[in-house]
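User: Can you predict the 3D structure for this chain?
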Amino acid sequence: MRTSTKTVAILAIAILSLGAVGLALGDSDDDDHERHEKGDGWLKSRPDVAPVVNATYSEECGSCHMAYQPGLLPGDAWTQIMSPAGLSDHYGDDASLADDVRADITAFLLSNSADQAERSRSRAFAVSANTSALGQGTALPRITETRYFLHEHDEIPARLVTGNPEVGSFSQCNSCHRGAAEGVYNEKQVSIPGHGRWDD
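Assistant: Here is the predicted structure, written as structure tokens:
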């Protein structure tokens, strides 16, 4: 009888341990975009790219366009973009900044760049980025020209984005990715203006 009780106890401990291991494995970044909880009519996911947490960056860059998360480009690309020359001709605009502001933002971008990040989608951007191919000639690197970005968007007809006056460009991430500002790029939260949810 005592042996049966011990056996049951050992089995219970083993089952609980396996459950804990399963939970630990399920907590990996690879499952970032698979975790959801319901709320506000959308399935909420944990950010698969670390959100922007630098107020200076949000204010200075976010006033003109979405403050793209640093984890969307590797450090070499951010260095080019944040150089004085890069800012003076920032995709056709003069976005020059005072040296101290530029230094603050650059430090934030470099310390959180795709090649420094641990989240799965950022790692994919880091691995797929070929900085020599990014920004041909004097042009600056673009997130939309990374191999990972191109792979993830290759099935979306241009008419739904560049031909869509409500979107206009693939660089307008937050037009279709409802969680983009929070670093959530899960396909389940994509809704293309004038088209609706995207399901490839």
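The chain has eight helices and four strands. The chain has a mean pLDDT of 81.
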